[in-house]
# Entry
Amino acid sequence: AWDTSFSWGDPRYQSPETWSRMRLVLEKRHRPCDVYKVSNKADVWSLAAVLFELLSGGKIPFLYLHASLPDVMDHLVVWNKLRDAVEKDEIEISPHLQGISDEAEELLRRLFMKEPKKRPNAIQLLNDDWFSLQIGNVVSPAVLSGLMINRVKSRTHYILLNALVTKLKSDHSRESQEAFLQVDADHSGSISLKEFEQALSNLGKDASHAKALFEAADINKDGKLSFPEFMAATFD
# Structure
């Protein structure tokens, strides 16, 4: 029998050799247990991906954009783009990591070597020059802002998933829909901040923190709230 049950982890941080084994498993040329037959150099690649994400302000390496796990798992185009780039493309430092030190750039290039044997191991990594720098470059406001947006986006996904997957109170769902339709005058299926404030007032809710709620619920940062986003933002 062919065992199809296995855990693989977050694809955003997987190494080329792990992706390659996964491909063979999906093609049924390898058994699922073979996915785990990679060295600890795969973990070094994962550390590099996390470091890139931090230094870039939340961008995923090889995608070069902010992408949550659902963004990758739920969109085949994004999945394929990430897989192919990790397996074939060289890492792009500029323009995604502007202002980093030469030592940081050199470290990332070493960590993102396609061949596991060419990557440093954990001990070599800790002894790298970058970790011994006494004064590093100041993190730019743009990077800090990107990390904060990524954090807010992740939290918003959590709020939405809990609000929509969990059984909502039927009265809340009905009241939210009525309030949303009342302010969605152009029937576009989305509302602005001003309309959101009016909807909160119609629901008898405190609108003093409307802007903060609106920005947290606006996942794609387009300045609008869809009905699911609105329902999550007004869920008690």
User: Anything to note?
Assistant: Residues 141-165 form the longest helix (25 residues). The CA atoms of residues 6 and 32 lie 6 Å apart. Confidence is low (pLDDT under 50) at residues 156-170. The beta strands are 190-191, 225-226.
